[in-house]
Specification:
Layout lengths: L5 H4 L6 E5 L5 H8 L3 E6 L2 H16 L8 E6 L12 E7 L8 H11 E12 L1 H10 L1 H5 L10 H11 L12 E8 L3 H11 L7 H16 L2 H14 L2 E7 L4
Parallel strand pairs: 1-2, 1-4, 2-3, 4-5
Antiparallel strand pairs: 5-7, 6-7
GO molecular function, one term: methyltransferase activity
Keywords: Methyltransferase, Transferase
Protein name: SAM-dependent methyltransferase
């Protein structure tokens, strides 16, 4: 289940790419499959161990083009262990809403992106997220949970300003290139979960809707593809923003 549109990101075989806050690795796997040189980065060592195993399985099964590389790296989003301008493309999907010092994390992403490189950031969309917070304190008060709700204007402002020099001049300001919405079918699922109990996976309504989402992901039936395209702009759970770093 991908959130980022890699064609829109401009991903090409051979690109050096960073999946920051990779979690289970869904975006890293797709970038590797497309022939990129991938670093899956996270602070969770257990998650990274699983990602490393799947990378190895993909190689062994011949699922990646010749020359593609993939590795994992554990660390802190506020102090990325990479050189300035090291990456051609960066993905930060559903991670900034968990980080208190989000501006510092964004500055690090901009720092390690090469001039001319592209960045995709996704976060929970404002309206679906507000509904979740209203329905359940448990949804966002859990350890490691969501600590803020972004508007698109707020996040665009934070990212575009992150590349500017300290004197406030335009300088290396990031260029906003567009936005998209994703996972329109998933917002109602989380509304249901928040209403019946976030951890109440056995509730009949939650179980039934979960089966629908599994069907969508595994089988991709035409009817649900159409429904998703209709719902994404209206109640898509994720906001996806695309940026480019100016050429030096």
């Amino acid at each position: 289940m991908l959130t980022v549109d890699f064609d829109r990101l401009g991903l090409r075989a051979g690109d050096r790419v960073l999946d920051m806050g990779c979690g289970g690795g869904r975006h890293a796997f797709e970038m590797y499959r497309r022939g990129a040189d991938v670093i899956a980065f996270d602070q969770d060592a257990d998650e990274l161990a699983g990602v490393r195993e799947i990378f190895a399985g993909m190689r062994d099964n011949g699922e990646v083009p010749a020359g593609a590389e993939a590795d994992v790296k554990e660390g802190d989003a506020l102090n990325l262990p990479f050189a300035d301008g090291e990456f051609d493309r960066i993905v930060a999907a559903e991670v900034l809403e968990h980080i208190w010092d989000d501006v510092d994390a964004i500055k690090e992403l901009v720092r390690v992106l090469r001039p001319g490189g592209t960045l995709a950031i996704s976060v929970p969309r404002w309206l679906p997220e507000v509904v979740n917070w209203k329905l359940s304190d448990e949804y966002h008060n859990a350890p490691g949970g969501h600590i803020r709700i972004y508007t698109d204007h707020e996040l665009i402002d934070k990212v575009t300003k992150a590349g500017r020099p300290n004197d406030g001049q335009p300088g290396d300001a990031m260029i906003f290139e567009g936005k998209d919405y994703a996972h329109g079918l998933h917002a109602p699922y989380w509304w249901i979960k928040c209403a019946v109990g976030v951890n109440n996976d056995e509730h009949p309504l939650a179980k039934a809707y979960h089966k629908l989402l599994v069907w969508e992901i595994m089988k991709q039936p035409k009817a649900l593809q159409v429904a998703s395209k209709v719902l994404d702009p209206i109640i898509g759970k994720s906001l996806v923003l695309y940026f480019r770093k100016p050429e030096a």
